[in-house]
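ENTRY TYPE: paired fold submission
RECORD: A
CONTENT: sequence, then structure tokens
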Amino acid sequence: MNKYTKPNFETSALITIDTQRDTLEGQPLEIKGTSDALPRMKILLDFYRKNQLPIIHIVRIYKPDGSNVDLCRKELVENGAALLAEDSIGAELARELFDNDSVRYNTKLLLEGGIQKISDNEVIIYKPRWGAFYNTPLDDYLKSLNVNTLVFSGCNFPNCPRTSIYEASERDYKVVLAEDALSGLYEQGIKELENIDVLVETTVNIIKKANV
């Protein structure tokens, strides 16, 4: 890493990607490894909560008529597949990310492009496609907080996390990936991220570096 890409954890935000109940083990959109990664995600979340650093949960929500669904799943949803469905319990964030089961979406606000605040430092943002920055208020929100470093965790690296990481890099954020708080990561993906100076580290090591 160099002086431009070295993370600054004091001005960082933690981002979870698509860690929703439908993606967990035994659910309609199960992504292998997401349930197993939940304990490390919770450790990171608790660290950020304790230190009053920003947390952004990025989520997908599909309307039953398929009107906001990406093309690869649009026909499935139009034909009745209940995937991340609007106002369903399956679209909600995994309960394991919180100390209780009280967090629920303000679906209307999210689908209209708003930011749902769930605590002083923790919010939810809806994204309409793979990337967390595409047609979302994420970049403006991060800039309003003077965030320059993003720590990524969540669901299914090949799709939404990878896209979001590259979007972050092209916006000149310093990027960290919590490799054990993420599903779907593979060796070639790690090499490609390291080639653009993304710091790929375990949850324990990220917290150690952040505490320096």
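RECORD: B
CONTENT: sequence, then structure tokens
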Amino acid sequence: MPEILKITLLSIGSIVVIFALTKMMGNRQLSQMSMFDYIIGITIGSIAAEMATSLEDNFTQPLVAMVVYALFDICLSIVGSRFMKARRIIEGKPLVLLNNGELYKKNLKKAKIDVTEFLMQCRVNGYFDVSKIETAILEENGKISFLPKVSERPVKPADMQLNPEQDYMVANVILDGKIMERNLKHTGKDEKWLTQQIKGQGADYVEDVLLATCDRNNQVAVFLKTNKSYTKDIFV
């Protein structure tokens, strides 16, 4: 068998195996991975790549290794879900980084996070002023959860005894200058109507629009393409 054909078949086989193992390990492997899940995923991918490029006749060894890694991760997941103490050992436990105006340097050091990175995570989560945060907790999966101070918490309709109308998902009708015909059809409108909507918001042509969305009330939001860039650096 020619080497190129063999590598092609092995690559397809490794992809199928990875797909099957990923389904066995669950969606958690794809989204909210723990550090151990992340390492297992990288290891399985590395073995799969070695399996695909192996020119030896014995490809069962990397295949067995992939299955063993996946089964071990599944077993740990089952044990962690049934026994809380085991879960603390396997996945770790939450770590308080900030509480009541006090930033814990030792916990930041333990989490391998410096102050600059912590501030970046605050901004990513919508907090540009750290003084508005009551508590910040590093979760087991490496993400940071933030609890705002009560005075900074957004007012909820329930606080004012209001019952607002339920929001719904919006449809992307233009992406990067191209009309999404299926999404536009879902709104019950046509391209002529959409063109009129974007012209009313400063776009002469569809190609001028980077993103346009339409809600269930046929309200269109348009974001134009621009060559401008924000160059002010105030975050270091």
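NOTES ON RECORD B: Strands lie at 95-99, 102-103, 133-138, 144-148, 171-175, 178-179, 209-214, 220-224. The chain is about 45% helix and 15% strand.
STATUS: closed
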